[in-house]
């Protein structure tokens, strides 16, 4: 235990220490600032009951210890003492006690201070940078978040930090902040130990599914007779399968847990051997196996629980009380409400028995690796064994929708507790997460999928959260507007109430839920203070007075503030205030407001410990985790530019720095934020993302009625160019005048950069982001067949970001340079990777093997261009895009072996290593025949096991006549040399042609041309008075666009709107047809006629081939199409 006691002569403090030492079996006690004469040390030692005691650092640190371990001490400076503990078991640890003589009170983030002035950002950065350079990580704590106070300000000044070796050896390390007592600092109680193993419950393992006898084992177990029907029968069969699979895992599969343990021990032994042989590279294995921390939990009141049984009993009592409704509170009368009502048809839709297809669709939507419930069966079991369990599970589902009682255990749930804040030590500080059985989750998801269709009708637009298509960030924007108006000059000044419902989702009363459902039409298969009290009475909810606050105008009188506090029971809130995770403040945004996101990123970096990650691992974490952490804030608020710079520095340090501390940062963060095709690393600039989110808000507010309608600029003869020029520049008018529209349709906002016409942040980002020129080389090195670390190395080669001798000398580092491959020339990038003796021999070998003429290259980039362009099919995942990257990787490894391992570079060994890597890739069966095309005669082709080609199954496809009384329209389009053309044919139920057309459209994309062809055919049908039209096109993309009701890409959106309108007029439906059965329309679209628009009124007017195809379709002539099996 460590305590800045501020006076060891205080009897009350000493009694508190003695009680704590005895109750927690303290073996080492460190007191800082005893403020007592050293002559009192012995008496304090006897009073506390320790065997030994010593004073250090000019009587600023007192240390007490017991005799069960050997202690040695070293005073490293006038403010630090190192304590070396040696235990009888042979293990040892080092503890350093620090007392800064100048009272350096520093915190690591702004959230570690309440009250007082804003912390100095530079001090925060220096302190965190020092911890990072020293390889020290904060220990998770329990208790109050603040360890020091003077009555006006609270801060976390006392902390325990450890290194990675401590965390790996002493898995469960926690620090508890105890009561301050007579000091202004909290005592720090540090505990450490190992996790206790216990027998694990049954869990279905997805690896079982690949075993040859798994399916037969499940079928045999499932076939065993059990009692019950419906849900009870299904539940009982799961219990049988559980017992059978448990035995099968041990007897047949081979006890997965034991096999994993053996494999881990074997891997560890090999890593140790590898480290011994290559200790100069200091390769450290990754041991990221920290156990789950068990916390010392506080119960209700001031009692603490240490034993497992006491913790279990306390948890059971707390959550039983939480989940049980208070009948006295929920007994109030409930008024009738005027709410939207469900119709009888909608109720029937909710309550109808699901089909097999609906249930199977829900099952397929589950992640096979998702957490299982108490029964141990995850989504992978239901997906792999569906054919076996289908009938019994469908009986269980029907049993549920028939209103049968669920058997005990069917809906059981495992409750997992997640801490809601750092230092959680009371049950209310944990969020209960339920892990339900997959069987009950399937039924729940069926119901939720159905009810999701009705939510937009039932929930008012003011409820922005948890509804598809709505964003909770709207509430943050509204709160910002309210805050901006808080200090307005009004007769009655403004007050904002911030309510927090205590355990809102856990305290909802079932009676209240049923009452609200009835008010919405579901069938069963005031003054502020008085309003709040009535709401609590009706709903069973409870307002959390400790978290609810009020914010008032700065001009409000103190008497009014006191009155608000008395009436509501809330405390006043000072600025800033955090709402839905966003810091809000009155006035300009300051950098200190956003220190929370900086602290979150820094906590991630501490957790990952970058020194144990490969370059590829860092890229993945930066792209998908770190770079996405600030996105929620960027949606609703614009941080100061300094925040972007601080985040960029953190990201950059994580990328470039290594386990030995700071390394050369070869590039700034912003220069890396480009797509890989443009020479970047695939990161997105936060500044560009902020602009994209700002465009999203502009787009959202632009949803109001526009200033002008299309009809104002469109006449019976077309666009009114003069009117357009009054409000738009000529360049825009020229584009609009070429666009076909129907002025009778409703105006819609279309986002041109996206594929479907709807706004997306990714398309906005692509529109506003900084750009570079595209490069074949940059794109080619990121071949998906290669590990990220290899691609990253070659990226560094191309960018000249390697610590070669000439590069280091250019940075002012004085050194003698000698190439390790030849020993003559100075080491430079082009010499080592291209012109040196080693590199030339290796390159000539692989150039000859692939039949590429060898010549001298001026740079690595020109060499890669030759390799990437030499693949016959132009694919960038071809084996020829792999080989040069692998060669560069092993050349670099040979250089490091020579420089740091004193292993002479030999070109034959480098070639051997490259071939070995190709053999390993070939054994993984990663290539298909297209990726090896043109190189099947090379010597390395024998290394590869080609992926088996998908087998094809031929099927007969034919055009089908429409039913009697209906008409069928077939259309198609073609694009040749930039010119798009379309054709179509209309036939009756006998297959006889009623009309056909050929039309040229100009320069359009294929889907747009398909849409124009379909529009032309529908216009012909409307003009001739036809109805009941069955439309068939061979463009699946067009069918999806028309049926999905999406706006569509500009300018295709206008065509889609007209197609939908005409389909309604002719009572038509549209379906997809294979190209083989659309031969007539395909032939008409491929014609080349003198006139741009030709109609055919009779069979005889058609070209001869089109006539023949119509005759073949009429007799049902089949065409052959191959399908993948």
TrEMBL record:
It comes from the Eukaryota. CDD domains: RNase_H_like, RT_nLTR_like. Pfam families: RVT_1 (PF00078), RVT_3 (PF13456), zf-RVT (PF13966). Residues 759-843 form the Reverse transcriptase zinc-binding domain. GO terms for molecular function: nucleic acid binding; RNA-DNA hybrid ribonuclease activity. Residues 970-1086 form the RNase H type-1 domain. Residues 419-534 form the Reverse transcriptase domain. InterPro entries: Endo/exonu/phosph_ase_sf, RNase_H-like_dom_plant, RNaseH-like_sf, RNaseH_domain, RNaseH_sf, RT_dom, RVT-Znf. This is Uncharacterized protein. It comes from Coffea arabica. The gene is LOC113704597.
């Amino acid at each position: 235990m460590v305590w800045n006691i501020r006076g060891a002569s205080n009897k009350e403090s000493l009694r508190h220490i003695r009680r704590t030492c005895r109750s927690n079996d303290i073996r080492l006690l460190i007191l800082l600032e005893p403020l007592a004469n050293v002559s009192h040390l012995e008496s304090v030692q006897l009073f506390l009951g320790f065997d030994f005691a010593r004073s250090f650092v000019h009587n600023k640190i007192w240390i007490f210890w017991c005799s069960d371990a050997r202690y040695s001490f070293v005073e490293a400076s006038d403010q630090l003492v190192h304590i070396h503990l040696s235990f009888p078991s042979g293990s040892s640890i080092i503890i350093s006690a620090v007392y800064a003589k100048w009272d350096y009170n520093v915190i690591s983030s702004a959230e570690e201070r309440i009250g007082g002035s804003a912390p100095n950002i530079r001090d925060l950065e220096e302190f965190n940078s020092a911890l990072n350079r020293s390889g020290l990580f904060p220990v998770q704590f329990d208790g109050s978040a603040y360890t020091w106070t003077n009555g006006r300000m609270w801060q976390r000044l006392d902390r325990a930090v450890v290194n990675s070796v401590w965390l790996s050896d002493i898995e469960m390390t926690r620090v508890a902040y105890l009561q301050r007592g007579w000091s202004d600092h909290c005592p720090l109680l540090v505990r450490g130990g190992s996790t206790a193993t216990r027998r694990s419950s049954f869990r279905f393992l997805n690896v079982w599914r690949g075993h040859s006898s798994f399916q037969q084992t499940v079928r045999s177990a499932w076939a065993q007779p059990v009692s019950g029907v419906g849900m009870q029968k299904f539940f009982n069969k799961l219990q049988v399968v559980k017992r059978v699979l448990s035995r099968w895992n041990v007897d047949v599969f081979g006890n997965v847990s034991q096999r994993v343990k053996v494999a881990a021990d074997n891997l560890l032994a090999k890593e140790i051997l590898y480290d011994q042989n290559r200790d100069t590279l200091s390769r450290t294995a990754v041991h990221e196996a920290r156990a789950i921390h068990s916390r010392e939990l506080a119960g209700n009141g001031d009692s603490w629980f240490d034993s497992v049984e006491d913790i279990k009993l306390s948890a059971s009592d707390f959550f039983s009380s939480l989940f049980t409704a208070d009948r006295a509170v929920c007994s109030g009368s409930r008024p009738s409400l005027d709410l939207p009502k469900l119709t009888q048809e909608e109720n029937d839709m909710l309550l109808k028995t699901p089909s097999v297809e609906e249930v199977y669709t829900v099952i397929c939507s589950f992640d096979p690796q998702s957490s299982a419930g108490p029964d141990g069966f995850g989504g992978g079991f239901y997906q792999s064994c569906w054919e076996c369990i289908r009938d019994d599970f469908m009986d269980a589902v029907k049993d549920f929708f028939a209103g049968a009682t669920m058997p005990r255990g069917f809906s059981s749930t495992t409750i997992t507790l997640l801490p809601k804040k750092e230092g959680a030590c009371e049950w209310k500080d944990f969020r209960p997460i339920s892990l339900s059985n997959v069987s009950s989750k399937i039924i729940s998801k069926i119901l939720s999928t159905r009810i999701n269709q009705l939510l937009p009708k039932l929930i008012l637009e003011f409820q922005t959260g948890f509804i598809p298509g709505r964003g909770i960030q709207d509430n943050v924007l509204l709160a910002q507007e309210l805050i901006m108006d808080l200090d307005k000059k009004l007769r009655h000044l403004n007050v904002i109430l911030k309510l927090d419902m205590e355990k809102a989702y856990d305290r909802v009363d079932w009676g209240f839920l049923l009452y609200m459902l009835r008010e919405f039409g579901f069938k069963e298969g005031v003054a502020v203070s008085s309003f709040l009290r009535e709401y609590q009475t009706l709903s069973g909810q409870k307002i959390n007075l400790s978290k609810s606050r009020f914010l008032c105008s700065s001009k409000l009188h103190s008497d009014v503030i006191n009155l608000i506090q008395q009436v509501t029971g809330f405390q006043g809130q000072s600025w800033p205030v955090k709402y839905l995770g966003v810091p809000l403040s009155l006035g300009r945004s300051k950098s200190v407001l956003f220190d929370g996101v900086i602290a979150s990123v820094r906590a991630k970096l501490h957790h990952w410990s970058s020194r144990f990650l490969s370059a590829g691992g860092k890229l993945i974490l930066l792209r998908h985790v770190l770079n996405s952490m600030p996105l929620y804030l960027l949606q609703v608020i614009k941080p100061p530019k300094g925040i972007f710079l601080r985040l960029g520095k953190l990201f950059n340090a994580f990328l470039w720095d290594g386990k030995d501390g700071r390394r050369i940062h070869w590039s700034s963060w912003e220069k890396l934020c480009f797509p890989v095709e443009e020479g970047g690393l695939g990161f997105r600039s936060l500044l560009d993302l902020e602009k994209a989110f700002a465009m999203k808000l502009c787009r959202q507010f632009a949803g109001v009625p526009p200033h002008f309608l299309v009809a104002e600029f469109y006449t019976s003869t077309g666009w009114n160019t003069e009117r357009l020029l009054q409000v738009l520049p000529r360049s825009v008018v020229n584009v609009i005048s070429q666009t076909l529209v129907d002025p009778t349709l409703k105006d819609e906002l279309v986002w041109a950069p996206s594929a479907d016409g709807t706004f997306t942040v990714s398309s906005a980002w692509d529109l506003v982001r900084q750009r570079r020129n595209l490069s074949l080389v940059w794109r080619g090195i990121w071949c998906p067949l290669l590990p990220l670390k290899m691609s990253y190395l070659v990226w560094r080669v191309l960018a000249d970001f390697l610590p070669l001798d000439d590069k280091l000398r250019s940075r002012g580092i004085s050194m003698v340079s000698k190439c390790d491959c030849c020993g003559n020339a100075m080491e430079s990038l082009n010499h080592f990777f291209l012109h040196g003796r080693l590199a030339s021999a290796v390159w000539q070998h692989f150039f000859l093997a692939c039949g590429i003429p060898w010549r001298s290259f001026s740079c690595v980039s020109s060499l890669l261009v030759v390799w990437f362009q030499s693949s016959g099919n132009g694919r960038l995942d071809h084996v020829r895009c792999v080989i040069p990257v692998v060669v560069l990787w092993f050349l670099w490894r040979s250089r490091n072996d020579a420089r740091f391992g004193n292993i002479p570079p030999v070109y034959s060994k480098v070639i051997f290593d490259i071939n070995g890597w190709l053999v390993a890739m070939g054994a993984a069966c990663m290539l298909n025949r297209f990726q090896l095309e043109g190189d099947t005669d090379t010597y390395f082709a024998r290394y590869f096991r080609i992926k088996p080609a998908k087998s094809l199954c031929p099927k007969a496809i034919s055009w089908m006549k429409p039913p009697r009384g209906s008409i069928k329209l077939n259309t198609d389009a073609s694009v040749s040399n930039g010119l798009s053309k379309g054709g179509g044919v209309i036939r009756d139920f006998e297959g006889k042609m009623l009309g056909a057309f050929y039309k040229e459209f100009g320069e359009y994309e294929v889907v747009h041309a398909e849409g124009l062809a379909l529009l032309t055919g529908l216009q012909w049908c409307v003009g001739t008075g036809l109805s009941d039209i069955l439309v068939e096109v061979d463009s699946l993309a067009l069918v999806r666009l028309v049926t999905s009701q999406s706006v569509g890409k500009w300018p295709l959106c206008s065509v889609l709107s007209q197609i939908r309108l005409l389909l309604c007029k002719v009572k038509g439906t549209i379906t997809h047809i294979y190209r083989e059965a659309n031969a007539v329309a395909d032939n008409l679209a491929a014609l080349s006629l003198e006139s741009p628009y030709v109609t055919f009124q009779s069979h005889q007017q058609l070209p001869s081939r089109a006539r023949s195809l119509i005759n073949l379709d009429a007799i049902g002539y089949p065409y052959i199409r191959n399908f993948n099996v």
